[in-house]
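Observation: inputs received (chain + magnesium ion).
Thought: call the complex predictor directly.
Action: predict_structure
Action Input:
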Amino acid sequence: MDPEIALKITKMLDPKSIAVIGASRNPEKIGYQVVKNLLNAGYEGKIYPVNPNADEILGLKAYPSVLDIPDDIDLAVIVVPAKIVPNVIEDCGKKGVNGLVIITSGFSEIGEEGKELEEKVVEIAKRYGMRIIGPNVVGICNTKHKVNASFAMGMPYEGEIALVSQSGALGVALIGRTWIDRVGLSKFISIGNMADLNFSDFVEYFKDDHETKVIALYIEGVKDGRRFLEVSAESSKVKPIIALKAGLSKRGASAAMSHTGSLAGSAEVYKAAFKQSGVIMAEDLTDLFVKANALALCPRMKGDNWVIITNGGGVGVLSTDAGEKYGIPLPDIPEELKNEFRKCMPEFGSPKNPVDLTGMATEKEYKEALKIALKSDFVDGIIVLYCHTAHTDPMEIAKAIKEVIDEEGGMKKPVIVSFIGGKEVYDAIDWLKENKIPAYDAPEMAVKALATIRHYTKWSEKPLIKPKPPEGIDREKARKIIEKALSEGREWLFEDEAKELLASYGIRVTKMRLAKTENEAVQYAREIGFPVVLKIVSPDVVHKSDVGGVKVDIKSEDDVRRAYNEILENVKRHVPNARIEGILVQEMAPWGTEVIIGSTRDPQFGPTVMFGLGGIFVEILKDVTFRVAPIEKEQAKEMIEEIKGYPIIAGARGRKPLDKETLADAISRVSWLVHENPEIIELDANPVFLYEKGLIVADARVRLRRS
Ligand code: ADP
Ligand code: MG
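Observation:
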């Protein structure tokens, strides 16, 4: 991040002096609550209330204007009515204020009028080099430096997670909940309308914030998807980013849109963007806290080997199932480790993984078993499960767990706990959390948290991919095809053009030639070699087979003539005034597995690339996957591997594996094609026949943006 911007943000989040503009003596007013919160938090810097009608607010000297304050101002918190915000900001600018938190609402979130006002505010702030958080926010908190510049009910629970929330109300509620779940925050940012500073800025900023270990986001919509993707990819290599994206359902998307006035990108593309930039997706609010907290409290998980230590078989099995579900199957453990575990259990215990200490186990057995697991080089992560029994006190078990971890010099590998039982169990869980050991009342949750740590560790170890274009691209040829169509005012490329375009990016397409007469068709068929396929080419026909415009497997010259005329008749019948460019004669590709490679342009993230199996797989099962373009071949391979139909490509049930390498290469090339040619707004290579060796594009459609 630009050090100058970073410094500005640091001074906003850890200010030496704060002006509260619109401070009030009326306890009902936000202008009162902000001053009160700063005082209650024990803020150690200077607080300057600004209010022309008061001399003193909450025991602090008040100033008529920010210009009257005899000190530099690192942060101005603005709570005056929207219409006077521009004047106030002008004053802040003259005063040389470093940064602004604009709590006031009534800006872009209310529509056109508010949007204009917001633009004006941004323009003034820019002129003076001031950065803005908001408007339409709750404020900011910094637990490490006792800053509560917000009208939330209080400070968040202290910890190492930076939480950035686009919803103010939810933000306030989550601050309250941090105390219940013991989810510690380093910083809380209510980001509101993001008129200036946005998610990308904070993702970039918190990467280097030493007080933050995990970045947690509640997102309704990001503003500049591209930048978000880039900065997240870099930051997530340094520390985990976990995001809860609202509006992934169709209805949810429109609710979010009217909420903050930002566009919610389509669900699939968000998922893809998160995946490719290493942003961990939270399923819901609880999941956001569970994952963020586990990641903040535990070290990374260096390998795939984890053990379950339990006093009950049932929860052990549930956790084993969860391990498989969340992608960390429970491994068998080596003999010598089993022998060690055997020492801390009765005869009828089980030293296999899950390590069942039996219902007889007390804190003593738990301590011994945990110690063995912590000391073992084989073990990379540990789940400790406990079902409440009559002869044990859960608090004693909890204390035993902490003692062993402390004896080992702190948590050197993830230890996640789940206790199941009544009230005493919940007290023990709370005690564990207070002592920075993640603990849950559901074993599946503990396993999910561990899996998240493992998946994140793997991601963080992989080098950051900055995609480079493949060799063998004829960009000039591609430009010519696109420009010709545009100059003719066409939105759709003809099939031969679309396929030539793909070919110019190094993807194999059928041999083909456009015939204007029956005789030409015969001649071209002879040149290409039988069997051939004949297809209509018309600007008025997009779906060729629907109008009888495709004839396949044509084996002789006579058949070419017959097909040629039949196609023309069919088309004339279905689309009476269709303009006809000619008939495309092309090689008949041998049958292969049909796949589809496509692209759409997303309003937030720009060009995307899609892959799936063709035919019913795409139409009925929607078994497709997306990425934001461009991508490398390696990333394309991940796409291929993640569709449900992957076994068909990998070679299931005695079938030979298909050419994944060439397929991945083609997907990557399509991603470069759409990335480098912004006029392409839709692309569909369908079907592409995939073989044991190679592939061929049989049909393609490309839509251009006119203008
Ligand atoms: P449409 O405009 O209706 O999508 P297509 O060009 O995709 O027309 O042709 C319809 C079907 O004909 C394809 O899905 C494919 O099964 C088959 N087909 C088309 N072109 C070829 C070809 N060159 N080789 C083999 N089969 C082809
Ligand atoms: Mg087709």
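Thought: report the result.
Final Answer: The radius of gyration is 31 Å. Confidence is low (pLDDT under 50) at residues 257-265.
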